[in-house]
Amino acid sequence: MNRRTRTRIAVTSTVPTLLTLPLLCLLAAAGALPWTLLLALPPALAVHAAVTFARLDRGPSTARSGRPGPG
Questions:
Q1: Residue 39 falls inside a structural domain
Q2: Please, which of 6, 26, 38, 46 could form a disulfide with 56 given CB 3.0 to 4.6 Å?
Q3: What whole-number distance in Å separates Cα of residue 16 and Cα of residue 4?
Q4: pLDDT, tens digit, for every residue of 4-42?
């Protein structure tokens, strides 16, 4: 898998977390959530994307299914 595809998948995998941002802002404004959680969101997204990018670099696993192959 090339670098551009891995980057696209890694960034796209953070979108569900970004969709929760408006809800988190509302909860923080209402006092039900500390504002520091919003400050922790960008580093958490960066780490998530980096881990996903690194995991996609490994390629297919060498584990076998246990079923006999042809031949």
A1: yes
A2: 6
A3: 20
A4: 999 999 999 999 988 998 999 999 999 999 999 889 999
- The verdict on residue 67 lying in a domain is no
Domain ranges, residue 38: 3-57
The CA-atom distances, in angstroms, between 71 and each of 23, 61, 68 are: 56, 22, 9
Q: Which residue has the higher pLDDT, 10 or 66?
A: 10
Assigned domain for 27 exists: yes
Distance CA 52, CA 39 (A): 21
Q: How many CA atoms lie within 13 A of 51 on its CB side?
A: 8
Total domain count, the chain: 1
Q: What is the pTM of this model?
A: 0.69
